[in-house]
């Protein structure tokens, strides 16, 4: 593990002090949340939802190739126990997002079958 020195605002010092040895995990999770592919998945889902799509559009929705490739990579590495904790959380977030979209797709399918 590398050692670095940071200048931080005084108001953050007690918070960071409380984190203790969890600071590396917090930093890794924060950086992973800013990852372009993870962010892209949420942007794609929000774009879909804000366009007031038809039920057919909901059912047809698929994530971009980049998002699918990232999920596939994480899943493959997960089966080999090669994920960092931050990557496990990232994969879990992808799963939660997909689960919510599947619920929306199921409702759209019910609406189409009426």
How does this structure look, described?
This protein is mainly alpha-helical. The chain has one domain. 72% of the residues lie in helices and 0% in strands. It has 6 helices and no strands. The chain has helices spanning 13-19, 23-33, 36-50, 55-60, 65-79, 85-112. Helix 2 (23-33) runs parallel beside helix 6, helix 3 (36-50) runs parallel beside helix 6 (85-112) and helix 5 (65-79) crosses helix 6 (85-112). The longest helix is centred in the C-terminal third of the chain and has 28 residues, at 85-112. The protein is elongated. The model has no long low-confidence stretch (mean pLDDT 87).
Keywords:
elongated; 114 residues; mainly alpha
Largest sheet: none
Percentage beta strand: under 5%
Helix content: over 70%
Summing up helix and strand content along with how strands pair, one would put the structural category as mainly alpha
Write the layout of secondary structure elements.
Blueprint: H1 13-19, H2 23-33, H3 36-50, H4 55-60, H5 65-79, H6 85-112
Helix pairs in contact: 2-6, 3-6, 5-6
């Amino acid at each position: 593990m590398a050692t670095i020195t940071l200048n931080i605002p005084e108001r953050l010092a007690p918070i960071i002090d409380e984190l203790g040895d969890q600071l590396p995990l917090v930093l890794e999770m924060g950086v992973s949340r800013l990852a372009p592919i993870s962010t892209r998945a949420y942007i794609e889902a929000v774009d879909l939802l804000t366009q007031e799509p038809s039920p057919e559009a909901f059912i047809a929705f698929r994530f971009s190739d980049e998002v699918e490739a990232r999920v596939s990579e994480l899943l493959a590495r997960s089966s080999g126990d090669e994920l960092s904790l931050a990557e496990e959380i990232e994969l879990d977030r992808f799963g939660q997002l997909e689960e919510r979209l599947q619920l929306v797709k199921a409702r759209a399918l019910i609406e189409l079958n009426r």
